[in-house]
Amino acid sequence: MNTDILHYTTRSSELPWKPLEEKGIDTKGIFVKVLRYDPNTGRAPVILLKFEPGAAYPYHNHPGGEELFVLSGEVILEGHTFAAGDYLYTPPGFKHSVTSETGCVVLFSIPEEVEIL
């Protein structure tokens, strides 16, 4: 194990926002910063997502559950609005879509790949 703490540090303010790209999914207006990449699974289980006003992510399932923390703005899941400072845990198998009327930045922890429904 690497014992240098900086090996495990991501300075998100130094990362550019990149358009979220997922094959076959309209992700217009959604941007991502990868905070942690797992080379063993080939995916990023911890990310920041930025939604421009009106952006939406389609209805999907979380086989491994999900945790999110709203850093700024407002995000809507299952008809409920979550604002800066709100935390949400969704258990494995929870299904929902994500939209933002105002725009937002959200921290996501997603241990398993989502399934678009």
Question: Brief description of this entry?
Answer:
With 117 residues, the chain is mainly beta. It is built from no helices and ten strands.
Topology diagram in text:
Blueprint: E1 18-19, E2 30-38, E3 43-51, E4 56-62, E5 66-77, E6 80-83, E7 87-90, E8 94-99, E9 104-109, E10 115-116
Antiparallel strand pairs: 1-2, 2-3, 3-9, 4-8, 4-10, 5-6, 5-7, 5-9
Structure, described:
The structure is a single chain. The protein is mainly beta and about 120 residues long. The protein has one domain (about 15-100): Jelly Rolls (Sandwich), CATH 2.60.120. Helices cover about 0% and strands about 50% of the residues. It has no helices and ten strands. Strands 1, 2, 3, 5, 6, 7 and 9 form a seven-stranded antiparallel beta sheet that branches. The chain has a three-stranded antiparallel beta sheet with strand order 8-4-10, with no helix packed on it. The radius of gyration is 14 Å and the shape is globular. The relative contact order is 0.24. InterPro entries: ChrR-like_cupin_dom, RmlC-like_jellyroll, RmlC_Cupin_sf. It comes from Chitinophaga solisilvae. This is Cupin domain-containing protein.
Span of the ends, CA to CA: 39 Å
CATH topology: Jelly Rolls
Instruction: Give the oligomeric state.
Output: single chain
Class computed from helices, strands and strand pairing: mainly beta
Count of distinct strands:
10
Overall body shape:
globular
Please state the second-level CATH architecture. Sandwich
The amount of helix comes to under 10%
Q: Strand share of the residues?
A: over 45%
CATH superfamily placement: Jelly Rolls
CATH class: Mainly Beta
Low-confidence stretches: none
The whole-angstrom Rg is 14 Å
What is the number of domains? Answer: 1
Mean pLDDT: 96
